[in-house]
Design goal:
By secondary structure, the protein is mainly α. It has 13 helices and two strands, in the order H-H-H-H-H-H-H-H-H-H-H-H-H-E-E.
Length: 315
């Protein structure tokens, strides 16, 4: 029987997930309403309904605060709210998984079954492919790749911010899982099923942690100034790489499923922290129209003032 604390933890996770989904939905509605007079009229009609009009009159300070938190025109508006909420969701998920691993219950109970199923479905060609693709989540690949991309921005676009962001993201991710691994001290799957050689504790997966952090920040850095469609493609590609890296760790016998999921959550938490700090320290550019069109971006323009800031795009 589940304890009340565990039920409350899961309820909080669901609530945070709903808030993140609501923020995404509100941003999409704003985006499409700006292009559709009919949709904008529907939104205006809902906003003028008696209950909402009463709330604006009764709680003007709170409503004004909420509007500022959802304003996409300022760095401290919608994008900071979304980043903090998404980071809280990831941190909460990591905490829940850690609790399950330490207590040997719930999601951890499914780990042996998932691993057993994966082992029975191993094939020669897939083993060869994943043995190579897992390298995209290793420090041997991520550190040189981040350095090369950061130096490109430094040399070609004369801004050091992308290099600093990528370095801070990777270093922070490595530092976090190096702290957590010995504290939890979870054994890896049996060595008899390994494809390769692995050392150290299993939880969380270092490959999953640093790949989630690195490729998310990489999408933010490279996606600066791109159209929504191109950024969607970029984020989809980054997500695919991260998922493949995580799946490879389970397939190769290096980690349990919960190790990989916790790595994703820890990496996402760290990226959210880095981005939230930058948004908090960014200046309000006030370019509302451009901010409505695009999400947070890293400016890499020619001017020193504009270079390297994460702001609503166009700022």
């Amino acid at each position: 029987m589940r304890c009340p604390q565990h039920i409350a933890s899961q309820a909080g996770l669901v609530l945070l997930g709903l808030i993140v989904a609501g923020l995404i939905a509100s941003r999409l509605l704003r985006h499409f309403a700006a292009r559709s007079p009919g949709l904008k009229a529907i939104g205006d009609g809902i906003a003028s309904t008696p209950p909402l009009a009463w709330a604006r009159r009764r709680f003007p300070v709170q409503v004004a605060w909420g509007r500022r938190r959802l304003d996409p025109r300022t760095p401290q508006g919608f994008w900071l709210t979304f980043t903090v909420t998404a980071g809280a969701l990831a941190a909460w998920a990591f905490g829940g998984l850690t609790q399950d691993v330490v207590g040997h219950n719930d999601t951890v109970l499914a780990d042996p079954h998932v691993t057993a199923w994966v082992i029975t479905h191993r094939t020669g060609w897939l083993t060869s492919a994943l043995s190579v693709l897992t390298g995209f989540g290793s420090t041997a690949f991520i550190i040189p790749a981040g350095l090369a991309i950061g130096l490109y921005f430094l040399i070609r676009r004369r801004t050091w911010r992308p290099l600093a962001l990528l370095a801070a993201t990777v270093a922070g991710a490595i530092g976090l899982y190096d702290i957590v691994k010995p504290l939890v001290g979870r054994p890896r799957p049996p060595a008899a099923i390994w494809i390769g050689h692995y050392t150290g504790a299993a939880f969380p997966s270092g490959h999953a942690t640093q790949s989630a952090a690195f490729y998310a920040m990489l999408a933010i850095v490279i996606g600066a100034g791109l159209s929504i469609r191109r950024r969607a493609i970029l984020w989809s590609a980054a997500t695919l790489v991260v998922l493949i890296v995580g799946a490879s760790r389970i397939y190769l016998g290096a980690h349990w499923l919960t190790d990989v999921l916790a790595g994703y959550a820890l990496g996402a938490t760290w990226v959210a922290i880095v981005v939230a700090v930058l948004l908090t320290t960014s200046r309000d550019t006030g370019k509302a129209k451009a901010a409505q069109e695009q999400g947070p971006r890293i400016e890499v323009g020619a001017s020193e003032e504009a270079q390297g800031r994460i702001t609503p795009a166009g700022g």
